[in-house]
Design goal:
The chain is an alpha/beta fold. The protein is built from 12 helices and 12 strands. The chain has a single domain, classed as Alkaline Phosphatase, subunit A, CATH 3.40.720.
Length: 475
């Protein structure tokens, strides 16, 4: 378990990153209405999984022979999902068909592929878990700038115990899969208990927790003033280092002040989580459910408008899957076609995806049942949920395909909903990349960036223009 010193340190690091300037390659344009209390913000949830997402598993089984032939050849086409049967693992979200888009055909060869991509898929650049490899803020942080909130962005993760990001500490606060800016990793909560303690400590009814929170406030106040005074006595790089540290502490204080003003609504939205979910020795399924509840509370309370959730990573020990509840499933072995208990590898992949769709259903249903702050419709009307693989199309991915499931509310300024879309395949005219996809989202929501992400040099020989948004998604 991390000590309070570790937690405060993680907060300082994160706040320092938040205060740094974003990449000049991707200027943000805040919407005129962003941050206004009388107008609802747009919200974004990014959910990614490890071990790939096999493209053939997303194809509706009700497609006729002509569509199946197009799919086999990976020809571009679009189909209205009305009247079609979804793959059975998507059954939990079938009731949200109107908001559902299955998107195939994007590529991501500009990312690090294979087993792990770290923050590659959200940043559209190569990254290898070294801070120096982070080239710019990931797209979730760029969107968070357009719709400001006290916490800006909240990330939660079912960390791996071996292999992959932040290995070995699933119950801590570790480097996540998002980035605040160049060489600035985000930090994610892996433990539901720690996330509850730290995110909702300002409204805790526990006297000891409140005492610690007030002590933290006084320490931060002292540190901020002390380091500002020290910085005034220094020059050059040393002055910048100490002043940045002081500024980081001050940003935490400013954030906490905003949170305290929201105490009423935060208190009404504190997650109702059974004590068994707050233990360290919990199953992967219980951890996912608890982190999902916490994430939803931060969104419905207005603490953040953007959340990232790592449902699992290749090294995440899976415990609690239906039919093999007591098995400790190794996803890497599943990627090499090994079964566990009574389930073979394809069946385990199916069970994992279906569990993820249960989480998506919980998110969408909760937000649909929560009135928007401006009294116009539900919170989901102004929300987009992205579900996609951490590393591309399969276990040892090449990045030629990057499947997505998108749930979009009615006020989404993108042409999405009730569609199966396959874009032109890799190398064909009109082919699009992850960079194009994230550019489209940024453009739609108010950042007219020319292009987000690194180019795929492998597409140069095909003469494909890689810049810009995907026009068919812009209303």
């Amino acid at each position: 378990m991390p000590t309070r010193r570790d937690v405060i340190k993680a907060g300082l690091i994160a706040a320092g990153a938040a205060g740094a300037a974003g990449s000049t390659m991707f200027p943000s344009r805040a919407l005129a209405s962003a941050g206004r209390a009388d107008k609802a913000p747009m919200r974004f949830i990014f959910i990614h999984k490890g071990n790939g997402l096999l493209p053939n598993t997303l194809v509706p089984p009700s497609f006729d022979e002509a569509l199946q032939a197009k799919e086999k050849k990976k020809e571009a086409y679009t189909v209205d999902l009305d009247g079609h049967t979804l793959p059975d693992w998507m059954a939990p979200v079938a009731g949200h068909r109107k908001n559902l888009t299955i998107l195939q055909g994007l590529s991501g060869k500009m990312c690090t592929t294979g087993h792990h991509t770290w923050c590659s898929s959200l940043g559209a650049f190569k990254a290898n878990e070294r801070l120096s490899s982070i080239k710019w803020a990931t797209v979730d942080f760029e969107l968070a700038k357009l719709f400001p909130s006290p916490f800006e962005h909240i990330e939660l993760a079912c960390f791996p115990t071996g292999g992959g990001n932040s290995r070995g500490n699933i119950d801590g606060i570790e480097k996540g899969f998002s980035a605040r800016g160049p060489q600035q990793p985000n930090y994610a909560f892996g433990s539901p208990k720690v996330a509850m303690q730290e995110l909702f400590k300002s409204v805790s009814d526990d006297k000891a927790a409140q005492a610690l929170y007030q002590m933290d406030r006084k320490i931060l106040e002292f540190v901020s003033g002390n380091h500002s005074a020290i910085a005034e006595q220094l020059d050059g790089i040393e002055h910048m280092k100490v002043q940045n540290y002081a500024d980081s502490v001050e940003k935490i204080r400013e954030r906490d002040a905003k949170i305290e003003k929201m105490a009423g609504i935060i208190r009404r939205n504190i997650p109702k989580i059974d004590d068994r979910y707050l233990k360290e020795d919990i199953s992967t399924i219980d951890r996912q459910d608890a982190l999902c509840e916490i994430m939803l509370s931060t969104l419905t309370s207005g603490m953040t408008n953007v959340a990232a959730f790592t449902a699992d990573e290749l090294g995440t020990p899976y415990v609690g899957l239906p039919k093999i509840e007591n098995e400790r499933v190794n996803l890497h072995d599943v990627g090499h076609n090994k079964g566990f208990g009574s389930l073979d590898a394809p069946a385990i992949r199916h069970a994992v995806r279906q569990q993820h769709m249960k989480l998506v259903d919980k998110m969408v249903t909760r937000l649909k049942n929560t009135p928007e702050i401006d009294g116009k419709g539900s919170m989901f009307d102004n929300t987009m949920v992205f579900y996609f693989p951490d590393n591309g199309e399969t276990h040892h991915s090449k990045g030629g395909e990057w499947p997505f499931i998108v749930m979009a509310g009615d006020n989404t300024p993108m042409n999405l909903g009730r569609q199966y879309i396959r874009l032109p395949k890799y190398g064909e005219e009109g082919h699009k990349t992850l960079g194009n996809w994230w550019t489209t989202a940024l453009n739609a929501y108010g950042n007219p960036v020319e292009h987000f992400g690194a180019p795929d040099t492998g597409l140069d020989k095909y003469g494909i223009n890689q810049k810009g948004a995907i026009k068919q998604f812009l209303s």
